[in-house]
Backbone:
């Protein structure tokens, strides 16, 4: 079974094997990554975390878990510009540095092993965590509590005052949507680090996970443009045109399609 097939097999389990699926994403980029071995090695980290946890009810252990990880050296990767290593779980575990989403995936896996209730939240620009029933969210990078006003401030710092906090921003994320976000992150990181072929691997996975947006098709079309694949670029631009509801974007897509050679038909 190749890494892509193993990835989707993880999603078919009940419950889905979220952390293992993310490891198979790393294995797709590096054949030396062994997800099953990493899962076994995580037992050591689990023991280290468990030894420093306070004696509290399970639903009060979310923040202590994150603080314990921080005590062990895990923190947000602030290297500029960010590299793919900030989102690849094998590298994050080695370096103890990563994007909030990668940190959140590690925390959720440990929480599951320690019977601590914890779910992910696809907050715009900064992945967050929640203990179900709590009146706050948690920053996976250190465990800071975020109440609604804190979430508004975080949103404004990243996107400006025009983007208002919405209920959708605070909803529990499904495993599939979390992995799609991880794939989008990697797509952008590889592109930013001038590796369009690696970015294409993640761009394809984004679409295979379903419910892709016009922006997702447009992102892959731009990769095909860089790789000089006009037929594949046309295919994605046509799909982006079908999905787009922005009249200005639709006009630009139509113009861009007009500059591409027509697809050839072989009989």
Residues:
């Amino acid at each position: 079974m190749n890494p892509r097939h193993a990835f989707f097999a993880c999603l078919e389990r009940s419950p889905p094997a979220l952390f293992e699926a993310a490891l198979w994403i790393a294995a797709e980029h590096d054949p030396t990554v062994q997800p099953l071995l990493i899962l076994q090695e995580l037992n050591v980290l689990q023991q280290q975390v468990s030894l420093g946890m306070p004696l509290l009810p399970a639903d009060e252990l979310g923040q202590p878990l994150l603080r314990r990880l921080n005590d062990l050296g895990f923190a947000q990767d602030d290297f500029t510009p960010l590299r793919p290593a900030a989102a690849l779980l094998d590298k994050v575990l080695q370096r103890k540095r990563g994007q909030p989403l990668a940190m959140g995936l590690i925390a959720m896996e440990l929480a599951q092993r320690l019977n601590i209730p914890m779910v992910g939240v696809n907050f715009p620009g900064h992945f967050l965590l929640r203990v179900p029933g709590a009146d706050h969210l948690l920053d996976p990078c250190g465990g800071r509590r975020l109440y609604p006003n804190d979430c508004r401030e975080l949103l404004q710092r990243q996107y400006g005052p025009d983007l208002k906090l919405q209920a959708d921003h605070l909803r529990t994320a499904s495993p599939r949507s979390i992995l799609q976000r991880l794939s989008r992150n990697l797509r952008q990181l590889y592109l930013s680090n001038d590796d369009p072929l690696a970015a294409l691997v993640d761009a394809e996975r984004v679409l295979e996970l379903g419910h892709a947006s016009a922006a997702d098709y447009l992102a892959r079309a731009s990769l095909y443009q860089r790789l000089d694949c006009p037929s594949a670029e046309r295919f994605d631009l046509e799909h982006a045109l079908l999905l787009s509801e922005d009249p200005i974007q639709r006009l630009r897509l139509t113009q861009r399609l007009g500059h591409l050679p027509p697809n050839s038909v072989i009989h």
In short: The longest helix spans residues 175-192. Residues 3-121 form one domain. The chain has two domains: 3-121, 175-258. The chain has a mean pLDDT of 95.
